[in-house]
Design goal:
This protein is of the alpha/beta class. It has helices spanning about 5, 50-55, 80-90, 110-125, 155-165, 180-185, 205-210, 210-225, 245-250, 300-315, 320-330, 355-365, 385-400, 415-430, 445-455, 480-495; strands spanning about 10-15, 25, 35-40, 60-65, 75-80, 100-105, 130, 135-140, 140-145, 170-175, 195, 235-240, 255-260, 270-275, 280-285, 290-295, 340, 345-350, 375-380, 400-405, 435-440, 460-465, 470-475, 475-480. The chain has an eleven-stranded mixed beta sheet, sandwiched between helices. β7 and β8 form a beta hairpin.
């Protein structure tokens, strides 16, 4: 592709007369290959402009910059290199979302489960579907693990995946769209048809700084959807009527809104909910008639996720019987209320819950199905939102019987400091170290300690890591598998006690 084609639709301040061939898009100078167009991104830790000359000397065909750097040539000056990266990536891969129906799913909690539910519904309907989620990438029936630790990848990776899906005959894609992805313009150039919102709660304030900015970043998904090209589907926002963010989101202009909920009147409203250890059954009224679903996923909050997925499916003109069977066919979502059973006389559950709201939901859900003690093992991310740490400690003290505070991803923050801030919240409401909780930095040891404490009838909740396959300690990325660590600890105890 010629450089001028790559630049189509990008506000350019100054461009050279030369029009070289472009064979790829790169934003990391270490990954530049000859012929790539290098895009200099100002980042949190470094500025890509420092590497412009290196990239050009290593064979980049051009560099997109916000300010000229040195004398290496050719450099194209643009107003915003993040926007340029997204649009250039879309252009390079020939704008795949113009040929695909695209559903964006955003929110603090429930994005992955809702996305996978909708993918399952689409596949059940015979629609070749793809999904890009925190957990995995799905191209029709093929599933590939997402090891990037990014919910929404950078624009070149997104567009490459979308182009691959288009080439493999996919017709509809569900794209889990994070607030980071929206604020950093990773999805600029994506032509959305439906914007689905789960909830907006306290999270990512280390990046967004204020709850208002976080909420506004999420709301941008509606704006992107409303402005996208017409593909024969009414541009629709699917909104949670029960969430406090609803009035704010409902003000955004879009062709159509569809609401769902449990408590307040909504277009899709659950009217009867019955939860058991095996799943959740619910009945709902919808614009297309009554819907009865028996989910095989635990957790009442999955009723909200199912309603959100069903709402998007209705916008895509899928019938209720297809929606029902699609939802009922989903047995598990990796790292979401995932039960571990290797023959132990107590329950062990893995869940990604890493926000105060999600931790509270999971603990409240597990309490009535636990005849013994409820034991929680969790931490909080280092170099991230500090405000939630004490809050999560307080929630554990109020809702659990015992807790082990441990590492999640301390990064370059002192692990003990993170854990102590969680413990401070627990102690504020009366818990004491040694009797109500312990602090163990090593997550494997923390899980082993909790397993050793468990008695018949107890429930162990391992929260915060879920599907993730690594822990960041310092600058190092250490392999991690929550399920494997738990199963190993349980088997050791079974062997010892047996």
């Amino acid at each position: 592709m010629k450089l001028k084609e790559v630049l189509s639709g990008i506000p350019v301040v100054e461009a050279p007369a030369a029009d070289p061939d472009v064979t790829g898009i790169a934003y990391d100078s270490r990954a530049v290959k000859p012929g790539d167009c290098f895009v200099a991104i100002p980042g949190a830790h470094t500025d890509g402009h420092r590497y412009v000359e290196v990239a050009l000397r290593d064979g980049a065909s051009a560099a997109l910059v916000q300010r000229r750097v040195g004398t290496a040539w050719p450099q194209v000056e643009v107003r915003d290199t993040r926007q340029a990266l997204a649009l250039a990536s879309s252009n390079f891969y020939q704008q795949p979302t113009r040929a695909l129906r695209l559903v964006g799913v955003t929110g603090t909690d429930g994005k992955t489960t809702t996305s996978i539910m909708l993918h399952r519904i689409l596949m059940n309907a015979g629609v070749p579907a793809g999904a890009i989620t925190t957990v995995d990438v799905r191209i029709k029936d093929a599933v590939e693990t997402n090891d990037s630790r990014q919910t929404t990848p950078e624009a070149p990776e997104i567009q490459a995946l979308l182009a691959r899906m288009r080439a493999e005959g996919v017709q509809c894609v569900v794209l889990e769209t994070s607030s980071h992805g929206l604020a950093l313009q990773r999805v600029t150039g994506c032509q959305y048809d439906v914007a689905v919102f789960t909830n907006i709660a306290h999270e990512h304030l280390d990046f967004h700084k204020t709850e208002a900015a976080y909420r506004e970043a999420k709301a941008r998904l509606i704006d992107l959807t409303a402005a996208s090209v017409d593909k024969g589907i009414p541009k629709t926002a699917v909104l949670n009527r029960d969430d406090p963010s609803y009035p704010y989101l409902a003000q955004r202009r879009i062709a159509q809104q569809l609401t769902y909920g449990i408590q307040l009147d909504a277009d899709l409203k659950a009217t009867r909910i019955e939860a058991s250890p095996k799943g959740v059954r619910f009945e709902a009224v919808t614009p297309s008639g009554p819907l009865e679903v028996g989910l095989r996923l635990g957790g009442r909050w999955n009723v909200y996720n199912a309603l959100a997925a069903a709402g998007a499916a209705l916008v895509l003109d899928l019938p209720l019987d297809i929606i029902k069977t699609g939802l009922e066919s989903l047995e598990t979502v990796t790292g979401r209320m995932e039960a571990i059973d290797v023959g132990q006389p107590y329950s062990v559950v893995i869940d990604y819950a890493h926000t105060p709201q999600s931790l509270e939901k999971v603990l409240r859900e597990l309490r009535p199905v636990t005849s013994g003690r409820l034991i929680a093992v969790f931490g909080s991310a280092g170099e991230r939102d500090r405000e939630k740490r004490a809050w999560m400690g307080e929630i554990a003290a109020r809702l659990a019987d015992y807790a082990v505070f441990t590492n999640e991803d301390p990064r370059e923050e002192a692990p003990r400091q993170v854990i102590d801030e969680i413990a401070a919240g627990a102690e504020e409401v009366g818990w004491r170290s040694g009797s109500n909780y312990v602090s163990i930095e090593d997550r494997g040891e923390a899980i082993a300690h909790a397993v050793a404490k468990a008695q018949p009838g107890d429930t162990l909740l391992l929260a915060g890591k879920g599907h993730e396959r690594s822990i960041f300690i310092g600058r190092d990325k250490h392999p991690w598998d929550e399920r494997a660590a738990a199963e190993a600890a349980i088997r050791r105890r079974l062997k010892t006690s047996g």
